[in-house]
Write a structure and sequence with these properties.
The chain has about 450 residues and is of the alpha/beta class. The protein folds into three domains: about 5-125, Rossmann fold (3-Layer(aba) Sandwich); about 145-375, tm_1862 like domain (pyruvate-formate lyase- activating enzyme); about 380-435, Nucleic acid-binding proteins (OB fold (Dihydrolipoamide Acetyltransferase, E2P), Beta Barrel), CATH 2.40.50.140. The protein has twelve helices and 19 strands. The structure holds S-adenosylmethionine, iron/sulfur cluster and FE3-S4 cluster.
């Protein structure tokens, strides 16, 4: 049996594509390995969101030259967002002769055909055309047996000025609501405990389908499915985060008490130049509405540090907003110039050193906020979906609470994949600790 090594980089939507790639390969008779040395086929499912992500892939592909020399029958394929940029596809073809096939983000279904061409010795094969057959049923080989990602839409229409995603993933296409509902029903029936709905802006779900369901409507339909499971979703663009969405989160028992609401910057001027279509004030209005319903509600966010010409005042505004909102966690990135985007043409006099200092300061402030804010859970009992054994702490387990907080506690590995109740006894800056409650 031929063995395939499939590695996905980037966001959860890309990871989900990687699971589809595995599904197609399984159908072709491949089994899977975590060791590239024993693979007959290697697929790197790439991300283009930051330069560092691309450099990493080029480094890995470079090092695979040796593998190919040792095993000339090895097939190496590059899939995912990097391939959708013409200059990158050209670079791969010109400078990395060890690569046999290139597969665009919308051409996953073309993989079997391309692979057969390669196996027949037809030479380099590529398909980066923009098919729209994303909804074609591909049975995924899922990485987890209890947590499932379900893409509800593909692409993005927002063109934030720093972001490559709309260029590499195309325009928004929503999946049919009934297909999503059937998929979730089937996942729940087969024992999945967490359903993560995915899209670059789930709040605009259905807007491209006439008479289609809105995202809050979809959430309410999924909430009706019988079973013991939690519904999560990401990402939610603040410009489209409505009161109806927030009310729906509170009304639906199975929808988690957590919202990932990427703010990107606390400066309205930077937000305008980012083309985010909201101001810091408008963002805080949404947060205030959420906290008026539950002051302990859990929020997380994405932030970019060092956007072109970000001033000290702009950066201070970012620190102010994280102090004001008190996120449970932030995902922060130093701005990375992406060729083809509008921001790539903006003058950027801020040095890398200053950007690095700002990043360190941001993380320092957030660490203090998290530790302090996590203390609100001490004495409370949280419902936790157990993920894994805790790293470097024998006898301990780690999981995520309904609020998306990492919880560490002592327990038996047989609990992995199950919901448990944990009484919270301590707070760190990245997680809370607790005691397993016996049922
Ligand atoms: N669609 C999601 C949204 O708007 O919230 C974000 C998806 S993007 C894949 C994830 C995060 O990467 C963004 O929220 C942003 O913080 C970050 N990001 C995107 N482009 C970036 C760039 N050029 N440099 C640094 N970070 C970037
Ligand atoms: Fe990128 Fe903005 Fe689209 Fe998110 S909403 S994927 S940040 S363009
Ligand atoms: Fe990266 Fe593509 Fe996702 S650029 S973040 S893998 S949509």
């Amino acid at each position: 049996m031929r063995k395939a090594y499939v590695r996905s980089f980037g966001c959860q939507l890309n990871v989900s594509d990687g699971e589809k790639i595995k599904g197609l390969l399984k159908k072709m008779g491949y089994s899977f390995t975590e060791d590239e040395n024993e693979a007959d086929l290697i697929i790197l499912n790439t991300c283009a969101v930051r330069e560092s992500a691309e450099d990493r892939v080029f480094g890995i592909v470079g090092s695979m030259k040796k593998l190919k020399e040792r095993k000339p029958s090895l097939i190496i394929g590059i899939a995912g967002c990097m391939t959708a940029q013409e200059h990158i596809a050209e670079k791969i073809k010109k400078s990395y002769p060890q690569v046999d096939l290139v597969l665009g983000t919308s051409a996953i279904n073309a993989l079997p055909e391309l692979l057969l061409d390669c196996l027949k010795g037809a030479g380099f094969a590529a398909d980066i055309s923009e098919y729209d057959d994303f909804s074609a049923a591909v049975e995924q080989v899922r990485d987890s047996s209890f947590k499932a990602s379900v893409p509800i839409m593909f692409g993005c229409n927002n063109f934030c000025t720093y972001c490559i995603v709309p260029y590499v993933r195309g325009r928004e296409r929503s999946r049919n609501a009934q297909d999503i509902i059937s998929e979730v029903k089937e996942l729940v029936r087969s024992g999945y405990k967490e359903i993560m709905l995915l899209g670059q802006n789930v709040n605009s779900y259905g807007k491209d389908i006439s008479g289609g369901m809105s995202f809050p409507q979809l959430l309410r339909e999924l909430d009706k499915i019988e079973g013991d499971f939690v519904i999560r979703f990401m990402s939610s663009h603040p410009k489209d985060a409505s009161h109806e969405l927030i009310d729906t989160i509170f009304e639906c028992d199975k929808v988690a008490n957590h919202l990932h609401l990427p703010v990107q910057s606390g400066s309205s001027d930077v937000l305008r130049r980012m083309n985010r279509n909201y101001t810091a004030g408008k963002y805080l209005d949404i947060v205030d509405y959420i906290y008026s319903k539950d002051p302990d509600f859990s929020l997380t966010t994405d932030l970019i540090v060092g956007f072109p010409d970000e001033s000290d005042e702009d950066f201070e505004a970012t620190l102010d907003i994280i102090k004001r909102v008190k996120y449970d966690n932030i995902y922060s990135f130093i701005y990375s110039k992406r060729s083809g985007t509008k921001a790539a043409e903006m003058p950027d006099p801020i040095s890398d050193e200053v950007k690095g200092q700002r990043m360190r300061r941001l993380l320092e402030v957030q660490r203090e906020i998290s530790t302090e804010h996590y203390k609100r859970f001490i004495g409370r009992t949280l419902r936790v979906l157990v993920d894994d054994r805790a790293k470097k702490k024998p006898g301990f387990l780690t999981g995520k609470s309904n609020e998306f907080i990492i919880v560490e506690f002592e327990g038996d590995a047989s609990l992995i994949g199950k919901f448990v109740d944990v009484e919270i006894t301590g707070a760190m800056n990245w997680a809370v600790t607790g005691r397993l409650k016996t049922p």
